[in-house]
Design goal:
CATH topology of the largest domain: Immunoglobulin-like
Largest sheet: 6 strands, mixed
Distance between the termini: 44 Å
Helix content: 10-25%
CATH architecture of the largest domain: Sandwich
Mean pLDDT: 89
Order of helices and strands: HHEEEEEEEHEEEEEHEEEEEEEEHEEEE
Shape: globular
Number of strands: 24
Number of domains: 2
Number of helices: 5
Strand content: 35-45%
CATH class of the largest domain: Mainly Beta
Strand order of the largest sheet: 8-10-4-1-2-14
Oligomer: single chain
Bound molecules: copper (II) ion
Structural class: alpha/beta
Length: 345
C-alpha cells in the first residue's frame, strides 16, 4: 500500500460512514469494565480536531500529550470525522482486496470496525473506537485508562499525522489538573488556528480574478500551516467565458484532502463507502462513486450537468472545462461551508 493510496482516504463522506457505524455498533456487545479505585479519579478532555474563524479546521488531538493516573477517564470531544486507534503502527484506511478475482479498493476493517466501547475501558494493546466511533450520534467518546504506567500512542487513521500520546503515570506522581489540561488544549488549538486564519487572508488576497491563458485557477483549502488549514476555495467566485477551464489545486502542504462536487450534492446517491453485506460476518466496505469520482479530470461540463472529482489528495489538481454559459455551484462534500460558484458568460 503506497502513500498515495493511503492518502486517498483522508476524508470520507459522513452519511455513508455513519451507516457503517450504526452497523458496527450493533455487532459490538462488550460489557463495561468496573474498576476498583484506591483514590479519586478525574476526567480529562481531549479535543479531537477543532475549528476556528475562516472555516479553519485543526487536524490534531489537543492536548497532544496528556498525563493521567490509572483509573482516570479520558473524554475525547470529536468535532468531525475521526477515530482513535491505540497501537504503534499506522494502518491504511483503504486496502486492495481481491473480490471475485478483481482487485478492489475497500475500507480496512482494522480502521473501521470498533473493538472499544464508548464508556468502556482501555486495557492495553491494539484497540480502536471504529470509524466513526461507536455511538456516532454523540460527539464524545470516553474511556477509563485501566493500564499500567507507560506511554500509549493513538491516532486517527483517516488524517495521517493526527496522533496523540497518553502517559499513565504512577499514582504518587502529581500531574496537571483537568482544568490545566483544558487550558493547555485551548492554547494548542489557538497556536494552530491563528496562523491558518492568516493563511486564509493571504490566499484570499492573492486569488485570481480572471482566467489566464484560458484557465482560472482556484486554491482548494490552504496549506503551509501545520495541522490546521482553512477549508475555503480561493477565489470562491470564478467568472470565466464559455469554453474556458477551471483548475482546482490542493496545496501540497495541505493537511487535508478535498473534493469538487457539483451542488447540490446527494451523499446517498453518490456514497463514499458502500457496505456490502456478508453472510454471518462484517460487511465489505466498497469504495463508492463519491470517493472514486464520477467525472474525469479534464472533462467538459455542459449546462446543468453534475460533476464529482472524487478524492483529491494534497498536491493533486482537478480541471473542468465549462462549455456553456450558466451558474455552476459546487462544494467539497466532506467539509461543511466549503463552497464556490463558477459563473460562465
Ligand atoms: Cu474539502
Amino acid at each position: 500500500m503506497n502513500r498515495a493510496t493511503r492518502q486517498r482516504l483522508v476524508k470520507l463522506g459522513t452519511v455513508a460512514v455513519m451507516a457503517v457505524g450504526v452497523f458496527t455498533a450493533g455487532i459490538l456487545n462488550r460489557p463495561n469494565r468496573t474498576l476498583a479505585h484506591g483514590g479519586e479519579n478525574n476526567t480529562y478532555m481531549i479535543q479531537a480536531g477543532g475549528f476556528g474563524e475562516a472555516n479553519v479546521e485543526v487536524l490534531a488531538f489537543s492536548p497532544t500529550y496528556l498525563q493521567v493516573h490509572r483509573g482516570d477517564t479520558v473524554m475525547w470531544h470529536i468535532t468531525s470525522l475521526h477515530n482513535m486507534r491505540f497501537g504503534e503502527n499506522e494502518a491504511p484506511a483503504l486496502i486492495v482486496e481481491e473480490l471475485n478475482g478483481t482487485p478492489t479498493l475497500v475500507g480496512n476493517p482494522q480502521v473501521f470496525f470498533p473493538t472499544l466501547q464508548n464508556g468502556g475501558a482501555y486495557t492495553g494493546g491494539e484497540a480502536n473506537t471504529g470509524l466513526p466511533p461507536t455511538d456516532a450520534l454523540k460527539s464524545t467518546f470516553t474511556l477509563v485508562m485501566d493500564v499500567e504506567p507507560g506511554l500509549y500512542t493513538y491516532r486517527c487513521d483517516i488524517h495521517g499525522g493526527m496522533t496523540g500520546i497518553i502517559e499513565v503515570v504512577a499514582d504518587e506522581e502529581a500531574i496537571p489538573t483537568p482544568i490545566e489540561v483544558a487550558a493547555q488544549a485551548d492554547k494548542e488549538l489557538d497556536d494552530q488556528i491563528n496562523p491558518a486564519i492568516g493563511a486564509y487572508f493571504a490566499a484570499a488576497a492573492t486569488a485570481p480574478t480572471e482566467a489566464v491563458d484560458g484557465v482560472f485557477t482556484i486554491t482548494a483549502g490552504t496549506g503551509g500551516t501545520g495541522r490546521a488549514s482553512s477549508l475555503t476555495f480561493n477565489a470562491p467566485l470564478a467568472f470565466i467565458n464559455a469554453g474556458e477551464q477551471v483548475k482546482w489545486v490542493v496545496p501540497a502542504d495541505s493537511p487535508t484532502a478535498h473534493f469538487i462536487n457539483a451542488a447540490p450534492y446527494d451523499p446517498v446517491a453518490v456514497a463514499d463507502i458502500i457496505p456490502q453485506p456478508n453472510e454471518g460476518g462484517a460487511p465489505t466496505l466498497l469504495a463508492g462513486p463519491g470517493f472514486l469520482g464520477t467525472t474525469a479530470d479534464g472533462a467538459t461540463v455542459a449546462a446543468g450537468e453534475s460533476f464529482n472529482s472524487g478524492f483529491l489528495a494534497p498536491g493533486q489538481s482537478y480541471s473542468l472545462t465549462f462549455a456553456e454559459a450558466g451558474v455552476y455551484a459546487y462544494l467539497c462534500h466532506v467539509h461543511p461551508g466549503m463552497s464556490g460558484v463558477v459563473i460562465v458568460q
